[in-house]
Structure formats: C-alpha cells, structure tokens
Amino acid sequence: MQSSEFRGARGVVCGLAIATGVLMTVSVGGAELGFTVGELYVKPHPHLDFETIYNDNINISSANKQGDLSFIVRPGLQLQLGGAMESLASGLGGGFANPMASFFTGNELIPRQTHLSLDYTAAIERFLRLDQYDAINHSVDLSTSYDFDKLGFGLGYRFQDLTGGNITVGERVHSQVHSINFSADYRLNSMFSVGLHYNQESDRYLTSGGIDSQRYEVGSTFYYHMTSRTDLSAQYDHGWYTLSQGESAQYDEVWIGISGRLTGKTTGFVRIGYRHQGFDSSSSSFDTPVCSLGLRSQLLDRTSVTVAIAREIAPTINVVNSTYATYRFEVTLSQALPNRNVTFSVGGAYEKYDYEYGTASSGLYSDVWTGTIGIGYNLTEWLHLGARYQYQLMQSNQTGGGANFDQNIVSLNAGVRF
Prior knowledge:
This protein has 418 residues and is mainly beta. It has one domain: Porin (Beta Barrel). Helix content is 6%, strand content 62%. The chain has an 18-stranded antiparallel β-barrel. A hairpin with a 5-residue loop joins β12 (266-279) and β13 (285-298).
C-alpha cells in the first residue's frame, strides 16, 4: 500500500502535469504566455516528456536480475528572464549517468549576458509488474548571471530527489543532492581577467548502502585571452569534505588549461593539474595528477563528434576510509540527415574506478563499459521524438549484488517544450 507521503507527492506532480498541459494548450493557441514583475518581463516555458523504458536489470544485480517495462511522465516549468546561459561543455557526454562522477569541473569565464532561469521538473515512474520500484523524482534548477561592465558573476543551484539504480552500491537507492556554484570574474583589460569561485555539494542517501558526504571547494583563476574566443588559464583550488562514515579530508589542486574555440571547427576545454590530499585523523596523504578534457568538433556539415576524458579523485560512497581515482573515456558521433530534423548518434564509454588511496586502501577496482545508439526526430519546433538503446557491463573484484552485472535498456520518448 502506498504511503500518504507518496500519494501526496503524486497529487502535486499530477497537478503540475495538468497546469503544464493548460499552459501548452494556450501556447499552441498562439496566446502570449509572458508576464511582467515590476519592470521585468518573465517568459514561462512549459515542458512535458513521456518515456517508455524496458530495463532487463532494474535492480543492478549479478545473480538476481529483474526486468520490467516502466512508464515515465515528466511535467515541468521553466521561468526565464533574459537569455539562456550556455556552457562550452554542454552536450558533452551522452553515455550514462555516473553517480560517482566528481561534482567539480572546470570554471570557465562567465558568459557576458544577463539572465535568470528557474526550472522545476518532476518525473513519475510506474512499472508494469514490479510496482515496488515505482518512484517520483524531483529536480529544481536555478541559474543566473549578471554583467556589470568589467565585473560579471554567476550563481547556480540544483536540488535533486532521485530513486534509481546506483552501480557503486549495486542496487536501487533513494538519494538527495544539493549543489551550489558561485563564480565571479573581473576583466583587468582586453588581455587579462581574474576570477573567484565557490562550489558546494551535499549528497544524502535515504536508503542503506551509501555514505553521505558534504563537499566544499573555493578557488581562483587567472585568464589570458589569446583571442576573442580562446582563453588560457591557471587555477588554484582548495577543497575539503566530511563523510557520515570514515575520515574527513582536505586537498589542494593546481590547474592549467585552455578553453573556448580551439580550432575552426572544435570548441571545448583541456585542463591538466596536480592534487595533494590529506586526511584529518591520520598522517596519510598522497599526491597525484588529474586531468579533464571535453571537446566538440564539427567534422562535416552534418557530422559532429564529442570526446570526454578525465582522471578525477573522489571519496567512495560504499567503502569506509577509501578514496578512488576514476579514469574515463567517452566518445559520441552524431549524424544529421539533410533536412537536419533527424539525427542519429552512436557512442561508447569506458570508466575505471580504482580504490587506491586512503587509510583503508583496499585494492578494489571496477571496470565499466557502456555502448549507446539513438535517433532523434524534431517533428516540429516544439515536439521531439526519440529512441535509444544502451548496453552496460561492469566487472569488479568487489563482492555484493552489483559487483559484476550487465544491463540492456531500450527507451522510446516524446517531449514538448515551448
């Protein structure tokens, strides 16, 4: 029997879905949805997605695989003031959601436009047979950037309440994530800028199996503008984290990098760095290189490729007093048809989790291979259809439900956005 909390959440989501449908009906009818708050003009963007998924290993198990068909409805609403902020790294990836990936990425210069965006999206998922896995997920995103001549700053906040498979824990988990990003930059002149940034993330597991964490990072960056679209940078970060189980730690990182338009057809970033990390309750420490690369290249008029490579360090969420290094390589090739309304994509990724650091360095490791193929069709300006297949294989010397598993996922989706 469903709890009153679950039924209440379902009522809220259903109400949002109805409101989203009403707004979309008004949009299709040609009415103007925008409104003013004082002297500010706010434009709402309702969106609604439907997805059907068949997953042959919902519980990420190596010995007790359970497969079923699920149906997901995702109503949402974005309120926007000004232009949308774009990231050089947007669109990179496209493989699989990685619950262990490092939250902290490159800090690029803030786009020189003022905007404010607030988005709420819910996802209500129902399984055909295995209704014990039914879930309602929530996501809130706030982003803003402001430009004051030479001074610019940006602020982002995200909250996620998610229930789904976690390859590290080896089962479905319920988690909540809060993340905050703040950055500011000051243009000294046409050639140089300086920047400050602060990142914070809180990960909480509401089901057993995961280690809660609080992570913080503050840093500064010096930019040299090689061209109007390309920057060289030198960066210093200081960070620390606390865990619900195990030792807290602190680290220092130095980075050098290049970002922007790297060639006539390639944009993205390349960063290499070095990290020193120590632990609070012991004299243990280590030094190690880190790197991060994300590139998008337009090979031909309708053919593009994205590549992501990274080596990162993060605390584990399933082994007490252990820190792992992740090695990741991912590539996705996209091909659009002549009318550009239909796009095919194929991609692959390899990721290694090496539990080699910390006071309980255990020698554990996990290797994950992922392959995807998909097609997207923009039927109209506001209606998108798609299909996707993903295969994932994990091999590890760990023990537990998901230490070694394989998984096939097939999905069909339709989305509308105004």
